Amino acid sequence: MIETIEFGKNYHWIILHADFLTNDTTDYQTLGLDEETITYALDRYERAHTEYQTDTNTFTIIYNVLKRTKEENHYETIPITFIAKKQQLFTIYNDDNAYIIDLMKKYLAYNNQISVVKFLFVGLFLISE
């Protein structure tokens, strides 16, 4: 499933469920995303890191978020992926971290006139908070 939300000055937040990318590996190419980044995003055990590709001017953040269900009496973290590219922010999520998407949507509903970079950092702040 792909959902696109327009905000700010012709910016787009493209929200992708990981299951969608797993089932159809060609759609990420039509969005201008490379296979290596998608491989990172689909790996539930990927370590948190950042990457900047100068040739495509693409900034990728794999960030660990809290998984809200306890496993063996403790909480674990799972990765969520943010990709800032030109006037787009891509977010690749799964069922365990979908609550982050809801938080970001609520923020954007009241603060629509922001940039891609500011929205990215607001998302990271919401996760950390």
Structure description:
With 129 residues, the chain is α+β, with helices and mostly antiparallel strands. It has helices at 18-23, 27-30, 35-42, 98-110, 116-128; strands spanning 2-7, 11-17, 49-53, 58-66, 77-85, 88-93. The model has no long low-confidence stretch (mean pLDDT 88). Helix 4 (98-110) packs across helix 5. A six-stranded mixed sheet has the order 1-2-6-5-4-3, with helices on both faces.
List the secondary-structure elements in sequence, H or E.
EEHHHEEEEHH
The description of the largest β-sheet is: 6 strands, mixed
Q: Uncertain segments of ≥5 residues (pLDDT<50)?
A: none
Q: What is the count of β-strands? A: 6
What is the number of helices? 5
Using the alpha-carbon principal axes, give the shape.
Answer: globular
Question: Structural class per helix/strand content?
Answer: alpha+beta
What is the overall pLDDT average? 88
Helix content: 25-40%
Question: How large a portion of the residues is in β-strands, by DSSP E?
Answer: 25-35%
| Lateral arrangement of strands in the main beta sheet | 1-2-6-5-4-3
Alpha-carbon distance between the termini?
27 Å
Q: How big is the Rg?
A: 14 Å
